[in-house]
Design goal:
77% of the residues lie in helices and 0% in strands. The protein is built from six helices and no strands. The protein has a single domain, classed as Serine Threonine Protein Phosphatase 5, Tetratricopeptide repeat (Alpha Horseshoe). By secondary structure, the chain is mainly alpha-helical. The termini are far apart.
Length: 115
């Protein structure tokens, strides 16, 4: 019985680690870049974060997966802050397409930037 419990434990650990590595979404280096940007907000960290979001979206599409929830919306909002209103609106609409449950929240953002 102890031998069987050890095998089950090992199997569960393998399943746990394999499921973590095969994420449903593409996150890229989001955590590292977003922390660097929001912590200091220097021109260098801002550029790196914007590029990181763009890369996550591109790599997700190449892999046939969706970017993680909120990536389109965050990148869109940041583009709006740069004065790129049309691109921002397109990305916010993509967020709703990819994650319909975000519609209520994203519609509020769209409403505020379209006025």
């Amino acid at each position: 019985m102890k031998y069987l419990n050890n095998k089950i434990s090992i199997l569960l650990i393998v399943i746990l680690f394999s499921s973590c590595s095969n994420s449903l979404y593409k996150w890229g280096n989001y955590e590292k870049k977003s922390f660097a940007y929001y912590e200091k907000q220097t021109p260098k960290s801002k550029k790196a974060f914007y590029e990181s979001l763009r890369t996550i979206i591109i790599e997700s599409h190449r892999a046939g997966r969706k970017p993680a929830p909120g990536i389109y919306a965050e990148y869109g909002y940041l583009l709006f802050m740069q004065g790129k209103k049309e691109s921002a609106i397109n990305l916010l609409k993509k967020e709703i397409e990819a994650y319909p449950e975000s519609k209520l929240f994203v519609d509020r953002i769209l409403k505020s930037i379209q006025n």
